[in-house]
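cron nightly-structures :: item 1 of 1
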Amino acid sequence: MRIADLAGQRVALWGWGREGRAAHAALRARLPELALTLFCSEAEAAEAAALCDPRLALEHAATAERLSAFDVVVKSPGISPYRPEAQAASAAGTRFVGGTALWFAEHADDGTMARTLCVTGTKGKSTTSSLLAHLLRASGLRTALAGNIGVPLLELLDAQADAWAVELSSYQTGDVAASGARPQVAIVTNLHPEHLDWHGSQQRYVEDKLALVTGGRPRVAVLNAADPVLAALRLPDSEIRWYGDAAGWHLRGDDLHRGALRVMDTAAMPLPGHHNRSNLCAVLTALEAIGLDAVALAPHAARFQPLPHRLQPLGERDGLLYVNDSISTTPMATLAALALYRERPVAVLVGGHDRGLPWDAFADAMRDEAPRAIVTMGHGTVAQNGPRIHDLLAPVAAQGRFALTAARDLTEAIAQARAALPAGGVVLLSPGAPSFGLYKDYVARGRDFARLAGFDAEAIAGIAGMGIA
């Protein structure tokens, strides 16, 4: 569905975050006379009213009855289509679309989108997207970095670029399939349980995540051979190129290989952890898929600027290193962070908004290789999973494997971590859960961690290279 197809239809916007604002601006640019209704909170309504758009009506209650009154609802990604009111409206004939679907439909003249490279995965998608844009630019291509990473695609509706590096969350992957467009390349880094509150089940999460390569039918699907779900995938409409196996781009220790060819040592690369260097393998595979010389481009990764809040060393205070991994929203991400610092005494801070993800595998891993201390956060706060994690870990901690303490908030957690560590230790914020309920987002949580640890929270840089360059 193109934006022009909305002319003459009853159209509503649902959500007024950055994606919602981008959708409003795009629709107004193409269809200035189209009547729109915006469903949003009272606080957001005041901001929307300040636009003085005479063709924009504001409502607060997005009920099934009201949503059913529209032919099309342009929905912000964070609003689940599996909510009862959305399901009821859909059954009544309302069509829900996302801004991502509108952008892809606008740009797919013949169904295929040359040099459009999409990235998804449970973890690593932002680093992979940014690194992809960095190396595309190193090749001389004017490249757009957009999508879930922070710049809605509709903000770049009429922008021109030689290549597009597009990050997609599991909330957006289905939009590509719905648009009818075929990206030239789609990367999937890995799959672990996440966002179960939005998707409703792990099975649906996996199906929605994989919609990028199943329904989206990219010309080339770049998949991680080390991920068991992806390794079993068959895509009859796409060429599959694997990374992480001996035939393609892979790592042997710190050495980067292209098949049998050793390309370079990655030890000094600004990509902490094996999982981040694996993202480099995904990017190089994608570059080859569009005809670029990935071997020649690989050394340019040395000048990549790491993303904030992702295993970000803030510095040392009183003999302790503070590491900000606030982006960590799954137990698997916390395990990956711990692996990076296994040679040092670590106190890890875990817990956040409870989405129902299981922590059993994490607890089992602590029986074999545990940090010096684990601090669970959010005790005494509604909808936080710290108490649940604490109860799960308590029997393991009782065996003397690690010290286990409980904290109400980040202030208490940092104090407990400091008390548990000797000089040379690491205070690691890697919560394994979202920040909702205590912070607006992981960025706010990471900034507060930096402030409480004694660092300049404003010095935590934003993501470099977003937009077009």
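cron nightly-structures :: done
The chain is about 35% helix and 20% strand.
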